[in-house]
Amino acid sequence: MARSLSQMMLKRFAAYPLARPPAITSRSIHQGEVRYSTSVPSDPDTHEDIRPTSKLESSGLSLENIVEQDVKDNPVMIYMKGVPDLPRCGFSSLAVRVLKEYNAPISARNILEDPELKNAVKAFSHWPTFPQIFINGEFIGGSDIILNMHRGELKEKLKTIVNNQGKEE
Questions:
Q1: Using one digit for the tens of pLDDT, what is the confidence trace for 57-70?
Q2: Cβ atoms 31, 88 nearer than 8 A
């Protein structure tokens, strides 16, 4: 009885076409949502009208100058995977959560959008991993460093930034 039931079920399932997942290219599909990749900048077969563009490139500054300007102009700058409201990595999420504990204004750039930016940040800081956090122009480190500093030293570093933000409001 069980064998005939299982054979009957197999025949029914065999009648349906197999559900094949769509072809997945690197970072093109995420949880059923289509994401547009920016990792095809030099593909000669891609027409220039549909080739991805970088907002950073159109600014007229080199990526090294953009990173330098970001760090100089923003009291708390984080280069991360994703954005503070939607981190794409556990380490980036941890760093943002720790920084938000102090109510400091966070400026961020998503390194997943531009591989060249990612390399420029690595060259600027001489540090290979992300997130990378800069406070008052000084490279602090990643989420592990921020977490260790959370026990006291970080409060001192962010104190003037938070106080200045309160005066501006």
A1: 556 788 999 999 99
A2: no
